[in-house]
Amino acid sequence: MINVCLFGAGRIGAVHAANIARHSEVNICYVVDAYEPAAQKLATLYGATVVSAEHALADPKVDGVIIASSTNTHANLMELAARAKKAIFCEKPVDLSVKRVRECLAIVKEMGVVCSIGFNRRYDPQFSALKQAIVAGEIGNLEMLTITSRDPSPPPIEYIEVSGGLFRDMMIHDFDMARWLLDEEVVEVFATASCQVDAAIGSAGDVDTALVTLKTASGKLCQISNSRRASYGYDQRVEAFGSKGMAQVANQTESTLTLTNGLGRMSAKPEYFFLERYNNAYRLELDNFVACIRNEAVPVAGPMEGLQSLILAEAAVESLRTAKAISL
Amino acid sequence: MINVCLFGAGRIGAVHAANIARHSEVNICYVVDAYEPAAQKLATLYGATVVSAEHALADPKVDGVIIASSTNTHANLMELAARAKKAIFCEKPVDLSVKRVRECLAIVKEMGVVCSIGFNRRYDPQFSALKQAIVAGEIGNLEMLTITSRDPSPPPIEYIEVSGGLFRDMMIHDFDMARWLLDEEVVEVFATASCQVDAAIGSAGDVDTALVTLKTASGKLCQISNSRRASYGYDQRVEAFGSKGMAQVANQTESTLTLTNGLGRMSAKPEYFFLERYNNAYRLELDNFVACIRNEAVPVAGPMEGLQSLILAEAAVESLRTAKAISL
Amino acid sequence: MINVCLFGAGRIGAVHAANIARHSEVNICYVVDAYEPAAQKLATLYGATVVSAEHALADPKVDGVIIASSTNTHANLMELAARAKKAIFCEKPVDLSVKRVRECLAIVKEMGVVCSIGFNRRYDPQFSALKQAIVAGEIGNLEMLTITSRDPSPPPIEYIEVSGGLFRDMMIHDFDMARWLLDEEVVEVFATASCQVDAAIGSAGDVDTALVTLKTASGKLCQISNSRRASYGYDQRVEAFGSKGMAQVANQTESTLTLTNGLGRMSAKPEYFFLERYNNAYRLELDNFVACIRNEAVPVAGPMEGLQSLILAEAAVESLRTAKAISL
Amino acid sequence: MINVCLFGAGRIGAVHAANIARHSEVNICYVVDAYEPAAQKLATLYGATVVSAEHALADPKVDGVIIASSTNTHANLMELAARAKKAIFCEKPVDLSVKRVRECLAIVKEMGVVCSIGFNRRYDPQFSALKQAIVAGEIGNLEMLTITSRDPSPPPIEYIEVSGGLFRDMMIHDFDMARWLLDEEVVEVFATASCQVDAAIGSAGDVDTALVTLKTASGKLCQISNSRRASYGYDQRVEAFGSKGMAQVANQTESTLTLTNGLGRMSAKPEYFFLERYNNAYRLELDNFVACIRNEAVPVAGPMEGLQSLILAEAAVESLRTAKAISL
To answer: What ipTM is given for this predicted complex?
Structure first.
């Protein structure tokens, strides 16, 4: 039996808890959350105990930790867990500061523990199929990548204020997707952006609409578009253009029903948001973590993924500030 | 220079005139229509002369005739034209009576003239591509054929009354499509139908909604669905199911524009009716007729197509009356 | 806690067991199967005990039964379960004989127990959305229904021989779908069919390719097409044509990935077979059964659905034999 | 009768000649081309005379000119035609030098003649429908525009060498599309590019794969992707994302036929290249020119369109050279 401690009993913590609890050989033994009622609720559901972080990490029967608490606690918990020799699954981002991420990853590396970063999209069956098609040579050499990533609606301004900004908070997923599919490091980043969705986001010092272009050493190009608001739901598409063909992942829709009448043909809109769209990805991500704890797999997204994506996000911020392409 | 006489200066006559006049080496020399102003209008447009049928057919410089007049004149004009040794293009149906069609075709055959029947859908590029895919073996053995054929709105009751009924007037196109794609004669016909669109159609002794099933000697099956009214336009689809795959022709739509919003994804409806949908088919049909006159081609749909489709329509009428499958 | 006994530990029994075991307040207490190892395997998985049917039905703590054993045991088990006052979920068909079904249903009715028949497609989210669209008037009056239902590959000949034939075994699902969507009883049935997939199916006295047309008292028409083999997977589509529009349920595909190259645009094929396609339907079906046991819902498909669909299947068999439409 | 002189009897000249000759009230009286056989061939086809530019422009019966000769002759011919008071239709680009375009347009303006620049895509029915949807408010405020524009295969290196480079020769169409749809001038241009298709293009000092981002004063963003080679044909798509929805123009495909088998679902690839894809646009463009000559319309793309698009192309070249966003 594998024993796991859950840090963070919020929405995404509950998703991870449900997914890991599906494994008959995994037990959630502890739940840690500063907000006691949330911790207690999940603990009751899974027969776990609410304890402090220190208590949980000191218990030798704990094999791994799931860090789904607020971003500013991630790096600290990762260090503590690494020092306690626990396998780590941590939600992205590791931290909003590249310097802090480097420190943290040094300790994780030193302690040699399993470390999986929650870039859930790498586990999505649709994007996995795309990755496989590229690796299998079905499009020849990948030359241009187009990533469209739009949320249905912006988060509260209070969240925006502590999020680290659109590039570190939202586009970081797309930077990771780009790195994964390009399979080559990015050497140039350019960002342009504006505030078109809500002026309050601009007042908070952030942007809500952004375009970024990336270039690799061999000349592969990538364009990423983000918006904090799409009237039609969660827009998650990728197009990979290569010398022999083009592969595209379309949105998953709410149903296959269509209605045709005098106005035209109506089909369903995309699934609403990440919990619906990446339902399978979240499940497979935790399956991977369980397999990692058992030494049967390695993380699809490890600590370097957390660092490199943040470096791209920083470069985008700098590019937006200076109106220049940033070389890496 | 090829000289052609046009019988019938109505809507479809005008379409054929425009299509044949595109050929720089074809001249419309005569227009014949009981309604003088219509005849004069087309004659003026194409530099032709309005004459009587007798006059036109007696002129040795006339190479061919296009018969696009009312149905009840078709067989007579075909006989006269055949006897005058003119190449014939005649709109479907040849006649509403199988007996009359047989008589007419005997004369056409005896005179040995070119005779093309206006089953325009055989010339449509989409259905041609389907036919080619079947012939090329892309679906293996064809086993089931599904023909969906619905008009945007019913014709006037006065037209219904002289039309010969849905099976002879409308489904006859689908019977021809079935025969063409099945490439094997039909041995069993069953029809069921009702009047759901307009009670006045029922009062006129006709039906407006019908399903027919066909079977060939080797056991291939075909289903045809007709409605006199589709709220979304002209619905013209065919699905060919075979041992190795399925080939489908979808509707042509008014545009490729789509709009996605909180209601879903809206795309364009099918093109409105036959003049839009079969625009290319009408053009290619007349190209074929010109090539036939020059002995460079044979009609894609000849006189036997006119007869055999009518026989299937008669069988459908009889099946509907008796609630039995009719063997042929 | 609700206690359920599972009859039949084969493939579909395992699916139902997994779906019902998801409910934290449902316990599978017994498994009954003539083949002891299969019974034991499922019993171990769910902490149940392998017992005889008599033992299970005599236990007052058993609230309901899931009958997923071979077809020839269904009616008998239903009667025994009804007499033991257990809620019943039974796979279709209740029996291959209309007479036997009537006897069985009389007892079920007399005992007044919950009885749900496994017409899983009614629970499918796609077809539910279609049903809702029709009920909501989105297509106006339903006038024509087209049901396409093709299996990826035929079952073994040994199965065919005891299946009751294509109409009772396979098309029975489509008859139920037709009745559900038409929302009006069928008054006329016509069937045509052939053996095009495998001659051995013909030798076993069955057909493998069939078209059926149905008509209701008010004149609504329905066409059903079945094949025992579709090269591209499980083909499960429905098109509802009405006075104001057309609603269509397309196949669910294996992914949303497309590949465009010099050959064209390739997208994924339909999901392979019923376990994949109706994955959600099987889950929701058992959710409904649990809700029925708790008196919080009524079966979406009750005993009369089992009977009426079989009556349509019988009529289709008779129509095929006589080449006449059968009036009901 | 309107008399027109055609300059340039190459491929696009022939297209324009055919489209303008469709008008019964338009006469092509002269053809001018340095390559006499090409000029003679078109002249014969349309009953025109091969003459020198001077002769044609000196003839008072000539109402308008179609300039479809090589790029380096455009500006000069435009000036001569303007001074001769002829209505002008000129293929893009006016010239490869912004300075020269300004000079030329000053003369055109001074002479007050009709001047239409061949940005054919503005006349395309698909993009017209998109423009109308935006203007009608169907997507709310336009916030992001994505233009995908890829040719099936690169032109010969000799053409590349005199083309002015990808931004002036190819992306200029997309700059015009962006300006037209954004309906607001661009204030910032950033370009990144590489040579991935053919190293010889790089040796010729050009790029074959490029991404450009544009920004307007109000913060609207636009991304353009170009490739000189798409294995699947001519890729011409536009996506307009707005506050209330997203409108997309998809590629036109060669047919509506699909084939589904064990490999998946295959549909047709995009139409091959501009002559196929913009067939209707070329026709409507000349209809507009005829209407302009008659004072019944104004050019959809006038001389300023030629200038502004070239300014964006220049900025892209400069951005690529400096790796900085260029402010306008």
So the answer is: 0.95
**Is residue A87 within 8 Å of residue A289, measured between CB atoms?**
yes
pTM above 0.90, yes or no: yes
Residues on chain D touching A192 (C-beta within 8 angstroms): 188, 190, 213, 215, 221, 325
pLDDT at residue number A25: 87
Q: Kindly state the tokens that stand for D323.
A: 């790796």
Nearest to B60 by CA among B116, B115, B5: B5
Q: Closest by alpha carbon to B30, among B16, B46, B11, B12? A: B46
Q: Is C261 helix (H, G, I), strand (E, B) or coil?
A: strand
Neighbours of D93 (CB within 10 A): 25
Mutation for D interface: C229, C232, C252, most D CBs within 10 A: C232
C58 falls in which pLDDT band (50, 70, 90)?
A: very high
Rounded to an integer, what distance in angstroms lies between the CA atom of residue C149 and that of residue C131?
A: 17
Residue C299 preceded by cis peptide, ω within 30? no
The distance in angstroms from the start CA to the end CA of chain C is 45
Best mutation target, A144, A148, A224, A267, to test chain D (most D CBs within 10 A):
A144
Chain B nearest CA to A230, separation (Å): 8
Residue A310: pLDDT band (50, 70, 90) is very high
Show the 3-state SS of D198-259. Answer: CHHHHHCCCCCEEEEEEEECCCCEEEEEEECCCCCCCEEEEEEEECCCEEEECCCECCCEEE
Other CB atoms closer than 10 Å to residue C11's CB: what's the count?
A: 10
3-class SS of residue A100: helix
- Chain center to CA of B171: 9
Domains and CATH numbers, chain B: 2-113 (3.40.50.720), 121-277+304-327 (3.30.360.10)
Query: In chain A, what residues touch C255 (CB-CB under 8 Å)?
Result: 125-126, 129, 249
Task: Output the DSSP codes for B104-138.
Answer: HHHHHHHHT--EEE--GGGG-HHHHHHHHHHHTTT
- What residues of C are in contact with residue D267 (Cβ under 8 Å)? 264-265, 267
**Backbone dihedral region for residue D294 (phi beyond 0: left; psi -120 to 50: alpha; all else: beta):** alpha
Task: Please indicate whether, in this complex, the C-beta atoms of C251 and A250 are within 8 angstroms of each other.
Answer: no
Contacts of D143 in chain A (CB under 8 A): 196-197, 209, 227
How large a percentage of chain B has pLDDT more than 90?
98
Peptide bond into D155 cis (omega under 30): no
The Cα–Cα gap between A325 and C119 comes to 60
Query: What is the chain C residue with the closest CA to A241?
Result: C260
Q: What is the 8-class DSSP label of residue A286?
A: H
Which of C255, C280, C283 to probe by mutation at the A interface, max A CB count within 10 Å?
Answer: C255
Q: Detail the DSSP E strand segments found in D114-178.
A: 115-117, 142-150
Residue-level pLDDT at B323: 97
Q: Which residues contact A182 (CB under 8 A, 6 or more apart)?
A: A142, A145, A214, A216, A220, A222
- What's the pLDDT at C312? 98
- Give the CA count within 13 Å in the CB-facing half-sphere of B172: 27
Edge-to-edge strand ranges of the sheet holding A115-117 = A49-50, A26-32, A2-7, A64-67, A87-90, A115-117
**CB–CB contact D323 A323 (8 Å):** no
Put simply, the answer to whether B247 touches D256 (Cβ < 8 Å) is no
Task: Provide mean pLDDT across the span B123-145.
Answer: 98
Residues of A whose CB is below 8 A from C133: 257, 259
Q: Which helix (H) or strand (E) holds A289?
A: helix A279-293
Segment among B49-63, C215-229, C230-244, D19-33 with least mean pLDDT: D19-33
Identify the H or E element spanning C254: none
Instruction: Please report, for residues A116, A287, D33, the alpha-carbon distance to residue A293 in angstroms, rounded to integers and kept in the order given.
Output: 10, 10, 76
- Tell me: pLDDT of A47 over 90: yes
